[in-house]
Structures are given as structure tokens and as C-alpha cells.
Specification:
heterodimer; A: alpha+beta; 2 domains; five-stranded mixed sheet; 16 strands; B: alpha/beta; five-stranded parallel sheet; globular
């Protein structure tokens, strides 16, 4: 279709006066047209400037496209015809009190007052500090019962509330209410001294410190016209793959534990730690905090480092491979994984699922293949997609990616890597510019979008964790599934609470 | 079956000998900061100004481990001439004041409350509450259950209910939305109970200091018995703290 949306590059700054400023009606029609034609929403948010509120959307087809408009106070909801906007519209309503009229399910996202001091769209006064000030979706029926779980869960995990409507053990509907982790990250990023930004972005989701840290660093690099050297790009790629390895291996172990097959659970728990310790070796932090900074990396990859990491990988590789073979070769494990919590490809498209959760439903999208940055431009990432959408597919996806990531790191450690480590410097972002960055974190597409004002100050910093797309996938997977399979499904998605709550 | 056994042999025995034998962490690990007392004033001021966490008190030449995220900016800037991070991970304290340090820390074992050792020395059940933690602190507490650390061999476990717990282990900067749930969990733990604060966020608000959505220090809400600094604390820091404080 004809569109006035402007094509931009991943991590490429663009002058804001080049971004098409459409009438709201054109913006709405064209954005919906692109998404109905198979596009996806990467970012859709509002920001305040010059006393007015404006909207900006970054959509992706096989290209990245951007356009903006003035925000109306209320408008006919796009979600009705075009589901991928659903959560973005709710977020807009919560942050800026812009009402999407006729939205199919307009409820709060993170439970906080809007940024403009307007009357609350959801009728909350925020005197209660629990995001439960809301009538949960209820199913009527004599034998229907509700199960409420959280915010404090039984394990050592983050808080969130799950409300199940069941008949017997069969789940009719799962409603997930988050917001307990809300720390005001986006507001903080716009208002604090620049030296704090890398620390805050690495804390958006600590298990995705490299993913979010990379999005931040690339955004600042684009806005300051800085290019990290080739060595830094390799080290950053290794950092992101180590993060993927540690988390995926940990998830495989947890999945095994959830079907009561304990050997892989314990082996994976230990091996996950070994991958974290490789990050520790590289940058002094098990989660990769402090590795990536605008302009490059803070630590070199010496020949001793390469030898050490290669040696550890050589030792781990057969152990990981054998543990995966054990896990998937055990009939009782397959019996629990297969056909459990299936999400259809059609639903996955409508929900906008990304990362392994999306690939497990047959959506091959992978930022490393589709919009590569860093050293991924030189790598051949295989197309991973499984059509079944069940726990098995989500587990198998992780196993495949684990094996691939080990190969990637192994190959990158072959040749000497030289880089000029960066020191803290005052970087002055370009004025009136916009940049969007995307990276394939272990959960999927992590994206930051930064807008600067006339003197280069940040006027909007928008963060999107892949979990923002994927939580509804978990809710969908529970439909018609036994409630006792919730832990297994939950772990097969393993989404971020704080990444969603910001 | 044969595969299960093959895997078992390949995996071997992995449990660490710590604390009977010391563990050396890698060179780039940033543990207890050591201050160089006679560093030039100008250098100290520069480090204090560059610290993203405002954790350096230039006047007293001390570093507040409660605010510090151990990013190492001051060490890099001063090239070790003002601050050097050592590989010493045994950095928990029983008093908040002790977090403000020049590199010397009181021995935790001597500062622990003796009746806690008597009550919980042989069996300690912990209820973890994540209150807006970024999942790094949570993950590195969780890892204590894996074979390398094997927390259970010390009689220490994480339990599912506060009713079964002797202590709560809090992570995160305690968001406004999580405050009530945290306080209710604390209430549900039978007395006598212990409060353990883990990570920079819980000690001071950490990276999120200044946000109206969070609490700048758990001690503003509850009496904290044990302060474990780090972003996140290394699992061995947590393990050392638990063992020294309760054993």
C-alpha cells in the first residue's frame, strides 16, 4: 500500500524534521494499513513537546518505518481492527491520558498516575498502592472458580498477579496483572544526569543487561556519530550471546525441573552459572553489567581471555549437548512438553509475539537476521522457526539457539580481537534527532527509542522489552490447559516482570 | 537409563569446598573497594564527580557500598590511585554505617546478634521477596540452590511461605506498588524474625535513586539486620553473609 512513513535504519539517527508529520487520520489509516498487511509495531508512544502531545510510531515490515502526528485527546481505537496495537494503546492511555475509544479491554498497564496530571482514564486515584484496584475479568457459571496467585510467588522470582478462571482443573482464562515492579524508569531516563544512564538501562531487566545496555549504547552512538571499532563489536556480540546462553540453559533446566526430571535441572543450573562466570571473566559482572558503553566496551579481549573462555567453552560444549540430548530423549519429558500450551501462529501474529516465543509459533523474525547490528552483519544466523507453538517448541527453540550460540562464540574466539577500551566521556547528542535501536535479546526484540530536543537534551526515552509483547502469549497458552501446567508454561515463556513494568 | 548414568558421570562432583577452602574470583571481579588514603585531593574530587551513584564522599574519602553499583568508574578514572576494587567478596555488614568504608570492614561474624546464631544456626528458612528487583539479585540468590553452592548443606533453604520462614530476604528498590505486599509478607513471618537486604537497590534505591516510585533504602520501612551490597551481590557474597551472620 501507499504509505508516507519514512524508512529508517536500525541504530541510525534521523533528523526529526525528516520524520513525516501526518494528520492524525492519515497516521491512523496508514499505520493500521501497514500492520494489517503483516507489519508489526516496534514502538508506538506519545511525548510532550512545546506544550502539546505528539505520537510517534515505528513499525516494521521487512523495513523499519516511522511517522508521527499530533495526539488527539481521544480517538477511535486501532486495536479493534488491528490487535498488535492493543497494549500500546493501553500504555498511551496510562502515560498520557489519551483515550482510545472503543478499545476492547482498556485497563491499566503498570498502575501509576499519568504524566500530564489529567484525570485518570481508569478511574484510579492511586491512594492504594496495589495494582489490584480493578475488577478482574470474571467468567460466570455455577462451577467456575477463580484462583488468585501473587504478587509474592512461591519461588525466588519477581512479583506479578495471576488470576485464573477455571472449570475444575481446566483454565478458561488467565488474566495477568503486572505493574508491581514499576520503578518509573522512562521518567528517570529523561531527568537524570547522563552519567547515570548506562547504569539505569542495565538495570531495566538485570537478566537482559547486555541487551538493554546495547540498545542504549547504540542509540547514543547514533546520536553522537560515534562508531565502535570492529573489536568492540565482536566483544559486544559475544556478550549478548553469553547472556542468551546463560538464560536459555537455565530455562532448559527449570523446564526439566517443572516436569520432575531432576538430572538436567541440576546440570543446567550449574552450567548456567558457568556461562555467567564467563561474563564475569570478561567484564567483572556475572550479568554483563559494565561491559558495554557508548563507543565500545570497557574491557579488552586479550589472548589470555580468549584462551580461557575457549577452554571453558570446550569443556562445557559436550556437557551441554549431552544434557540436551538427555532432556529431549526422555519419553516422560516429551510427553509433558508436547501439545502443552499451544499458541497458534495466527494468534501469535495478532499478539505480536517476538523472540523464541514467536519463533516457536512459526514466526521466524530474529533481529540478528532481519536488522543486524554489531558483528551479526558478518554472521550467518540460521532461520529458527517451529510451527507447533507448544512447550516443546519453546524448549526446542532454546536448545537449538544454545547450540548455535556456542558455535558463534567459539568462532569469534578463534582470531585475535583488538579494541580501544572506552573511558567515561561527555557525549553531546545531536539536536532534534531521533533514533530507534533493536537487538535480539534472549527473550526477543529489545528496543529503545530516543528523541532529542533543540539543544540535544533527551525529550523522550522509550523502552520496550520483548516481554511487553509476550505476556499475552502466556495468557493465551493457558486457554483450555490444565492449571497444573501453568508453571511449565510460565517457565517456557520465562518473561520479564521488571522489563515490562519499567 | 544408560544415558542418565553417562550424563551423571560426565557431570562429576561440582560442589564447592567454600568456606573450608578459599575461592579466588577472576581479576576483573569488583569486590571490596580499597581506598588509597593519600590520593591527591583533585583526583578524589574528580572520582566523586564522575560516580554515577554519588557513592563517593570526597571529604571523608570513603565509598558508600550501599549506593555503589561496583561499576568501577572511579577505579578506571583514578587508575587505582584512589580506589581499587579487590577480589574480596566478603563484604556484607550488620550495621548500615559500616557500608561507608575506606576499605576496612568489621568482621561480620563478631557483629552478628548472638541470639540469632543460637536460634537459626542449625536451621534457617528464608522467604525471598522481590520488590521491584531487576532479576539479577534474584537470580544470584536462586543460584545458591544449584550444586556448586548447595545452600541446603548448611541447613539453609528458601521456602515458599512466609509462615515457614525465619527471615525475609528483600531485593529491589521497593516500588510503591510492591510496598504493601512486602509489608504484609513481613507481618506474616513469625517472630523472632530477621530482615536481610540484598543489593544496591534495597540498600539505597540503587540505580533508581530519585524516582518517586521507589523507596531509598529498606531500613526506612523495616529494621534491617543484615546489609549485603552489590549490583548484584556475587552468590558467594550472599553465602558468606548467611554463614557468618547465622553460623
Amino acid at each position: 500500500m501507499q504509505t508516507e512513513f519514512l524508512e529508517i535504519g536500525n541504530g541510525k539517527a534521523v533528523a526529526r524534521d525528516r520524520i513525516p508529520h501526518l494528520s492524525f487520520d492519515d497516521f491512523r489509516v496508514q499505520a493500521m494499513g501497514l500492520v494489517e498487511g503483516g507489519g508489526k509495531v516496534v514502538q508506538y508512544f506519545a511525548y510532550e513537546e512545546g506544550g502539546g502531545i505528539k505520537l510517534l510510531a515505528v513499525l516494521r515490515t521487512d523495513r523499519l518505518l516511522v511517522a508521527g502526528c499530533d495526539a488527539p485527546e481521544a480517538y477511535p481505537s486501532m486495536s479493534l481492527a488491528c490487535e498488535p496495537f492493543h497494549l500500546f494503546e493501553r500504555e498511551l492511555a496510562e502515560q498520557f491520558a489519551i483515550r482510545p475509544e472503543g478499545h476492547p479491554w482498556l485497563k491499566m498497564v503498570r498502575y501509576h498516575p499519568n504524566y500530564r496530571g489529567r484525570e485518570d482514564i481508569f478511574g484510579n486515584d492511586y491512594t492504594q498502592d496495589i495494582p489490584g484496584n480493578y475488577d478482574y475479568y470474571a467468567v460466570d457459571g455455577e462451577e467456575v472458580h477463580e484462583v488468585a496467585v501473587g504478587p509474592v510467588h512461591a519461588g525466588v522470582i519477581e512479583p506479578g498477579h495471576f488470576r485464573f478462571n477455571c472449570i475444575g482443573e481446566r483454565v478458561l482464562h488467565l488474566e495477568i496483572q503486572l505493574g508491581y515492579q514499576h520503578r518509573g524508569v522512562e521518567q528517570l531516563l529523561m531527568n537524570v544526569d547522563a552519567r547515570r544512564l548506562p547504569i539505569i538501562t542495565e538495570g531495566i531487566a538485570g537478566d537482559t543487561a547486555v541487551g538493554h545496555g546495547l540498545c542504549y549504547a547504540q542509540a547514543i552512538e547514533a546520536l553522537t556519530d560515534t562508531t565502535p571499532d570492529a573489536g568492540a563489536r565482536i566483544i559486544r556480540t559475544i556478550g549478548l550471546e553469553l547472556e542468551r546462553l546463560a538464560n536459555h540453559v537455565g530455562d532448559l533446566g527449570a523446564l526439566s525441573g517443572d516436569v520432575a526430571f531432576l538430572p538436567p535441572a541440576n546440570y543446567c543450573g550449574r552450567m548456567r552459572g558457568d556461562f555467567l562466570n564467563m561474563s564475569l571473566w570478561l567484564c567483572g559482572n556475572r550479568f554483563g553489567k559494565g561491559l558495554v558503553r557508548p563507543g565500545g566496551v570497557r574491557f579488552p579481549m586479550t589472548d589470555v581471555d580468549r584462551e580461557t573462555l575457549s577452554g571453558r567453552l570446550d569443556e562445557l560444549k559436550p556437557q551441554v549437548r549431552h544434557t540436551i540430548e538427555l532432556l529431549f530423549g526422555t519419553p516422560s519429558v516429551r510427553a509433558r512438553f508436547e501439545d502443552c500450551g499451544a499458541v497458534s501462529t495466527d494468534d501469535a501474529h495478532k499478539l505480536g509475539l517476538v523472540g523464541p516465543a514467536g519463533r516457536a509459533c512459526g514466526i521466524a523474525y530474529d533481529v540478528r537476521r532481519d536488522f543486524p547490528t554489531e558483528h551479526y552483519t558478518q554472521l550467518d544466523i540460521p532461520e529458527n522457526a517451529k510451527p507447533t507453538g507448544d512447550v516443546y517448541a519453546r524448549a526446542r527453540m532454546r536448545a537449538d539457539e544454545v547450540l548455535q550460540s556456542m558455535d558463534i562464540i567459539e568462532s569469534l574466539l578463534q582470531a585475535p580481537v583488538s579494541t580501544q577500551c572506552v573511558l567515561p566521556v561527555d557525549l553531546k547528542p545531536a539536536s532534534s534527532a531521533m533514533v530507534v535501536t533493536l537487538n535480539e535479546g534472549w527473550r526477543g526484540e529489545v528496543s529503545h527509542c530516543v528523541l532529542t530536543g533543540a539543544d540535544g537534551q533527551i525529550v523522550r526515552y522509550k523502552v520496550k522489552d520483548p516481554s511487553f509483547h509476550n505476556w499475552n502469549g502466556l495468557a493465551m497458552s493457558l486457554r483450555d490447559t490444565g492449571i497444573s501446567d501453568f508453571p511449565l508454561n510460565n517457565k517456557s515463556f520465562n518473561l520479564s516482570y521488571c522489563g515490562f513494568d519499567l | 537409563m544408560i544415558k542418565t548414568l553417562q550424563n551423571r558421570f560426565e557431570q562429576g562432583y561440582r560442589t564447592s569446598r567454600y568456606p573450608k577452602e578459599p575461592i579466588q574470583l577472576p581479576e576483573r571481579y569488583r569486590g571490596r573497594p580499597q581506598i588509597v588514603p593519600d590520593a591527591p585531593t583533585e583526583l578524589v574530587a574528580r572520582c566523586a564527580a564522575a560516580c554515577p551513584q554519588e557513592a563517593i564522599n570526597a571529604e571523608s574519602r570513603r565509598i558508600d557500598m550501599g549506593r555503589c553499583v561496583f561499576c568501577g568508574t572511579c577505579e578506571r578514572l583514578s587508575e587505582g590511585r584512589f580506589v581499587a576494587f579487590t577480589q574480596d567478596f566478603e563484604i556484607a555488614t550488620a550495621q548500615k554505617e559500616d557500608l561507608l568504608t575506606d576499605g576496612s570492614l568489621p568482621a561480620l561474624a563478631n557483629h552478628a546478634k548472638q541470639h540469632f546464631k543460637k536460634l537459626f544456626g542449625r536451621s534457617l528458612q528464608l522467604r525471598q521477596v522481590s520488590a521491584a528487583g531487576c532479576n539479577a539479585c534474584e537470580a544470584d540468590l536462586n543460584v545458591l540452590a544449584t550444586p556448586f553452592f548447595d545452600l541446603a548443606r548448611f541447613g539453609i533453604n528458601f521456602v515458599a511461605s512466609p509462615r515457614h520462614a525465619d527471615a525475609i530476604v528483600v531485593t529491589g528498590p521497593i516500588s510503591r506498588n510492591m510496598k504493601t505486599a512486602l509489608l504484609q509478607t513481613y507481618e506474616a513471618v513469625p517472630a523472632p524474625k530477621v530482615v536481610i537486604a540484598v543489593g544496591s537497590c534495597t540498600l539505597s534505591g540503587g540505580p533508581f535513586q530519585g524516582s518517586p516510585e521507589i523507596t531509598e533504602g529498606l531500613d526506612q520501612l523495616l529494621p534491617v539486620d543484615l546489609f549485603i551490597p552489590g549490583c548484584p551481590p556475587h552468590p558467594l557474597t550472599n553465602l558468606h553473609a548467611f554463614l557468618s551472620f547465622f553460623k
